[in-house]
């Protein structure tokens, strides 16, 4: 044997104490003798002399059920005391548990194990318990611990002066503390950010619960709340029945509110949350949410509502819910996967009245806030392939703003979309090759009442001051005719179908020029069955379906077109090396030829009313946003983009372009019932100029500017500027928008706005934030629609916030102040002020307290609060 000291794993000694005799064994191999022992396989009972250390510690008293391994520098057998002691870096491995200590003694008569000095017990799940002294049963299922500290794999920490392991499922900590915050590495003597200090902490492993008796919640070591009894789920539990963190709310119309949700884990894939909340001014508001996860999907149903006690707190109809007593909402959403490629789903929300969700601050899952402008309900069937998709769905809407009039909102069913892309191999298509695309759409919609908007002015009914009407500005009489009034929505039924087959192929010549020839065939048909009956009267103003005859003539019209087209796109990227980086200059030209297939000057347009001409659609074959409109005639699009890559200094990209109507009818100068295309920058033979500049020096900074300039005067028609910066602890973003007035499509004033937001990480875990929005158009509204002059920099909304975040705690407080216009009679506005406090304690839950400190709803000089 080599000389020198053996290592810890191979150095072993054993000593038996009896009547003055001692037996010593030298170091030996791990597999050659029995002091590192594997025992516990069921078999015949061994005699005392044949028992190993593992046998003696595991003991017949507890009933050995698994193998045990014992390692130590020295082992002492004491026959008089009937004990076995492992000393010096003692380690015991048993059924996934590891017990480590300076000294471990097993008492055969009692079947107890005593561990002393730097004791550490590691459970199979990774949880660790530290103690000065630990006494356990032979199977580690019972015992007590002095001066204990337990650390779980979920990074939670429990300390106590003493702990008793009553049985395999129950552990009691006396005069203990619980926290999910780590100790300060530099100052371990300091208390954590928060902790629960209790006279007794009981951990029920079979229930997966922690119970606190006579508990105090401490913040930085200072007590701030007392609980005679408190319970929470075990940190390892993701779902556990019980009460959740309370919810606090305040609004002037509802009063202070306090609610405590109860969560019921019905099954591993099913749960129910019940939230009763008492509002001091309105009474008991309740919410019930049921969730169910299936093998092939999920769904949930949420029902909430209230029987109000003080209806007068809300504005009278149509500015508020008035004397409506029973109010509520039903929301359900689900997705069922029928196969790997097909799914069926729904997303439905119905409310008792359009003011309910905003009056009671229901959260909006889409906007991540508490504001709704409308509810959208849909049912769909969707199929997704490698190069195509199928989508069939229906929509229903409820308007939630004061300006919405429900009979004017359309229901859409069906809406069907199909798209498929097919690659053509040249060798199989007589050298044609390229890519074939099929695109199809079928949409049918219906509404009870048509919706209109006056051209060149904002005209609203003279009774409520809410609903758009069309009147002659000179005579004041109704004028629902094309050119004077826009028809936004159809009263009646409208169905439209479109199928488009297109082909394109990219060809690169030896010079690097990229040619893309393309061709398409588009078929469109629509059936209009508008209503001539039905109307709504607001004082002396009337909205009637009969006015639609001014736009469409005879009822029940079917129209269809077949539009073929061919085109060619050319690009020639040129690469140049400069002292500051590589420069790519790419001129682009495109020509598209189609016949004049416009149906009529008063064509229905429901799905293509959003038209913004910018860099994103300059080289599109069709710049309309939907299927109801399509470009006609021969059009050329041309421009160039420049990219300078400055290596470590980022890159600059710029684009400049224009579109021209070469021949045929310019569809953008051919108004439909909604005047879409007019004043778009595309309605003249030579379009406005399109520009874009992007500069990104590195991942922390970016600047993007997009602009459209009048082709004759170079006057600015459209501008969007966005900037973002992240420098050390500071984050900043800003946006400026400036759009010219477009009275022919309903925008009679220039629209300008400026927005800033920032966040400053003051210290490692502390931050402050702020944002402000300027409405730079508000001064235009005086004297036509606002009674007093407005400053150029009118503050539309602003907010400030501060917070703290770390591994165990998230706290924030945010204040927002925003105005919402109400072009009523007389005009007024509501300033909504909200204070939101959020506290999230990891493993304990979160508390949210939205407080609406708005002065109330103002109408006709009367405040309703």
UniProtKB/TrEMBL annotation:
- Superkingdom to which the source organism belongs: Bacteria
A Pfam family hit: LptD
- Principal subcellular localization: membrane
Q: Which InterPro entries match?
A: LipoPS_assembly_LptD (IPR020889), LptD (IPR050218), LptD_C (IPR007543)
The places in or outside the cell where this protein is found are: Cell outer membrane
Q: Does the keyword Membrane apply?
A: yes
List where the protein spans the membrane.
21-41
Q: Which family does it belong to?
A: Belongs to the LptD family.
Q: What does this protein do?
A: Involved in the assembly of lipopolysaccharide (LPS) at the surface of the outer membrane.
Q: What protein name does the entry list?
A: LPS-assembly protein LptD
